[in-house]
């Protein structure tokens, strides 16, 4: 089965109000995932992913008043996550809401391009987006603000020496994902 990478959701018409958020929780080998999304006519399964976070994650989403608990809206995304954790999926076909600053989106696109089972460095991501060597810290900050853990593979970004560095959900989870993918871990 050919699976394509996560892609941004098509912009929705401006109505002056944000689309209502949908949410669900899903068990995983990393702990209980919180999935947050918005309805999308173009997304597989009808939901564009806004956030995927874990308990204890720095900057994790929390369910807000007015959000609708809609587990069925995440059936397709949950199936892909289950296949990933079972080792049967190497690339997600998930539409996601394109939020963040221009710089963050440039960094996140570069992160999206890192293949399953491989790693690259923060410096290499900076180079890929045309940022100076001095921008490595800003690249790291943008990666740390990735709202789509697991789906957008920020776990594949390591230090210049190959060592595990910063992961909003904890280095043990970063290592778990790299081992799952068969990527080198130092």
TrEMBL record:
Determine if Lipid metabolism is one of this entry's keywords.
no
Carries keyword Transferase? yes
Catalytic activity, per the record?
Answer: a 4-O-methyl-thymidine in DNA + L-cysteinyl-[protein] = a thymidine in DNA + S-methyl-L-cysteinyl-[protein]; a 6-O-methyl-2'-deoxyguanosine in DNA + L-cysteinyl-[protein] = S-methyl-L-cysteinyl-[protein] + a 2'-deoxyguanosine in DNA
Every copy of the Methylated-DNA-[protein]-cysteine S-methyltransferase DNA binding domain together lies at 102-182
Q: What class of enzyme is it?
A: transferase
Q: What is its EC number?
A: 2.1.1.63
Recorded GO molecular functions are: methylated-DNA-[protein]-cysteine S-methyltransferase activity
InterPro entries, per this entry?
MethylDNA_cys_MeTrfase_DNA-bd, MethylDNA_cys_MeTrfase_DNAb, MGMT_N_sf, WH-like_DNA-bd_sf
Q: Any idea which UniProt keywords this protein has? A: DNA damage, DNA repair, Methyltransferase, Transferase
Q: Which GO terms describe its biological process?
A: DNA repair; methylation
In terms of superkingdom, the source organism counts as Bacteria
Q: Which family does it belong to?
A: Belongs to the MGMT family.
- Specify the protein name: methylated-DNA--[protein]-cysteine S-methyltransferase
């Amino acid at each position: 089965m050919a699976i394509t990478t996560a892609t941004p959701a098509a912009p929705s018409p401006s109505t002056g109000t944000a689309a209502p958020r949908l949410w669900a929780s899903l068990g995983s080998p990393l702990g209980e995932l919180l999935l947050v999304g918005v309805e999308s006519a173009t997304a597989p399964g009808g939901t564009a992913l806004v956030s995927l976070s874990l308990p204890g994650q720095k900057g994790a989403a929390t369910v807000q008043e007015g959000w609708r608990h809609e587990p069925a809206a995440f059936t397709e995304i949950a199936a892909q996550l289950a296949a990933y954790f079972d080792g049967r999926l190497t690339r997600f076909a998930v539409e996601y809401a394109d939020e963040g600053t221009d710089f963050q989106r440039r960094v996140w696109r570069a992160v999206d391009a890192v293949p399953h089972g491989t790693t690259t460095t923060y410096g290499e991501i900076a180079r890929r987006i045309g940022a100076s060597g001095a921008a490595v810290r800003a690249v790291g900050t943008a990666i740390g603000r990735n709202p789509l853990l697991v789906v957008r593979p920020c776990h594949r970004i390591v230090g210049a020496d190959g060592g595990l560095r910063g992961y909003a959900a904890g280095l043990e989870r970063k290592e778990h994902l790299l081992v799952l993918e068969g990527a080198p871990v130092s």
